[in-house]
Design a protein that fits this description.
Elements lengths: L1 E14 L7 E11 L4 E6 L3 H8 L5 E5 L6 E7 L13 E2 L18 H9 L8 H14 L8 H17 L8 E5 L6 H10 L7 E5 L4 E3 L9 E3 L4 H4 L12 H14 L3 E2 L1 H13 L2 H6 L1 H10 L4 E2 L1 H10 L3 H10 L8
Helix pairs in contact: 2-4, 7-8, 8-11, 10-11
Length: 336
């Protein structure tokens, strides 16, 4: 990478090889200077388009990427700050290092990005217009989505592991959070168990509130296991125990939710929500906030009081109350 102040810019032209009166650019001579020294370079004619696009002139501070030929204009050298009385330019100091510098570029790429990039390969070489035309023609004859197969994932994993071993890339494990994990069936657990053996596997976190329950997909035998998770998967886990929330903790969570939704509740209303959360569930108590706000607004108040919470609590049922209602009436009056 070259990072420097431009003190000379010359475009050398030659006769058009196709004949006629036109002329074509043969090369570009660019003089570059830093606080340590200066250099005059003979550059490819394609860089002239980048220089023209950035509006580079003598006295500008620019940098050029040697690999791609990309040109970026940083600003005007501060040695030209007194050139005009009024100027709408951004003046920057002359670079202090060498004319030629090396810059390390770190790019974050996920495995999914690599899968998608290889599932939709570019149309190949040729000029940009030719690539665009060929890509358009090929996209008309192919489906827009290409399946990411296990073979493709395996090839990409081999390349990634090779880069890691060479020190070119560094693996940053991701986190996969699966809530209500007891809803997964046996095939899902088999796939996860195999994927966890990979050296590039993410950190997997399972969450469930079930005890001894049936593993889905094991019918008709209905195999039961702790939390609905097969034992071979359960043996690979570190189980974090959780305890029920206290009333004060439920009140604190309701206060955070109320602040997030810009709701104004009295202290007595928060205490009533905590009691309802302990009796029913925290989720049910939080869901009462929005209906209670509507009740308060219909009565011309901006503050939610305990009467509003009690009124919406009488209108709705939580899961436990609904189950008790069905059991007490043996389901009479309800469709089966």
């Amino acid at each position: 990478m070259l990072f420097h102040s431009c003190f000379e810019q010359t475009v050398e032209e030659t006769e058009d090889p196709l004949g006629g009166y036109g002329r074509t650019i043969s090369h570009v001579i660019l003089g570059l200077k830093t606080a340590k020294g200066s250099k005059t370079l003979k550059l490819d004619p394609t860089i002239h388009d980048s220089l023209s696009k950035e509006g580079v002139a003598v006295g500008d501070v620019i940098y050029i990427e040697a690999n791609s030929g990309a040109v970026k204009r940083v600003g005007r050298s501060d040695s030209f700050a007194t050139e005009f009385d009024l100027e709408a330019e951004e003046y920057v100091p002359i670079p202090k290092g060498d004319v030629h510098k090396q810059k390390t570029v770190i790019q974050d790429v996920t495995l999914h990005d690599l899968d998608m990039a290889n599932a939709h390969p570019s149309s190949g070489g040729g000029s940009s217009n030719q690539r665009d035309v060929l890509g358009l023609l090929r996209s008309m004859g192919k489906p827009k989505k290409t399946e990411i197969t296990d073979k493709l994932r395996g090839e990409i994993n081999k390349v990634v592991e090779q880069y890691i071993n060479q020190g070119v890339a560094e693996l940053v494990p991701g986190v996969l959070f699966v809530d209500e994990v007891h809803m997964l069936d046996m095939e899902c657990f088999t796939y996860l168990n195999r994927s966890l053996e990979s050296p590039i596997a993410p950190i997997v976190i399972f969450a469930t509130n079930r005890g001894i329950t049936t593993i889905r997909g094991t019918e008709p035998h209905a195999t039961k296991a702790p939390h609905g998770i097969p034992l071979d998967v359960l043996d690979r886990m570190l189980i974090v125990p959780t305890l029920p929330y206290s009333v004060q903790e439920m009140i604190s969570i309701c206060q955070i939710r109320a602040r997030t939704e810009n709701l104004n509740l009295s202290e007595d209303a928060f205490r009533l929500l905590g009691a309802i959360g302990q009796k029913a569930s925290l989720r049910y108590a939080i869901q009462l906030l929005t209906p209670a706000k509507l009740v308060a607004e219909t009565q011309g108040r901006s503050e939610i009081i305990p009467d509003d919470i009690s009124q919406v609590d009488e209108l709705f049922l939580d899961g436990k109350a609904s189950a008790q209602l069905l059991l007490s009436n043996d389901g009479i009056g309800f469709m089966s």
